[in-house]
Structure to design on (159 residues):
């Protein structure tokens, strides 16, 4: 289900980019997505995820409407490239260019692909992997926060 939601997220982020940071004509977009076979639950989940990320400073599309992009220059070695189909590699590039995954998540996806034992990851497999990293490492998520960076003062008390 995650890869289907990610497909919708990609669709919505593209619309944000095209419309200067606005999601105009939501009902028309929802109808278009339904006609492509997505459920209302999937559409709502993707929409809420995008809105939640949009509220985070510096993520995806700035409120000014400019896509928060950095120049993507990562090139896979021939060895790494063997772990992705053409469509899988294309999905990886697309998600990075849209700012849906960062450099660290990109490297984690490549590493996971190499460790997966599968011959080559297709676009659906790449989106599934990406979605798992996106939902477990969203801005504001402190699940990966180390206690060593927390300041407990002179008398640390953990209850």
């Amino acid at each position: 289900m995650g890869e289907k939601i990610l497909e919708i997220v990609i669709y919505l982020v593209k619309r944000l980019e095209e419309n200067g940071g606005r999601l105009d004509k939501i009902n028309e977009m929802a109808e278009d997505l339904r006609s492509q076979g997505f459920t209302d639950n999937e559409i709502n989940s993707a929409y809420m995820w995008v809105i939640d990320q949009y509220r985070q400073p510096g993520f995806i599309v700035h409120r000014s409407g400019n896509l928060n992009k950095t120049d993507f220059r990562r090139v896979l070695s021939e060895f790494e490239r063997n772990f992705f189909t053409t469509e899988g590699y294309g999905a990886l590039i697309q998600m990075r260019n849209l700012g849906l995954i960062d450099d660290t998540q990109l490297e984690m996806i490549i590493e996971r692909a190499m460790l997966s034992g599968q011959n080559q990851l297709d676009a659906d497999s790449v989106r599934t992997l990406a979605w798992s990293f996106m939902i477990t490492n969203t801005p504001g998520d402190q699940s990966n926060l180390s206690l060593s960076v927390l300041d407990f003062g002179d008398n640390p008390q953990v209850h």
Summary: The helical segments are 2-18, 26-35, 40-54, 78-81, 86-97, 103-115, 123-136. Confidence is low (pLDDT under 50) at residues 60-69, 138-159. The chain has two domains: 1-68, 69-139.
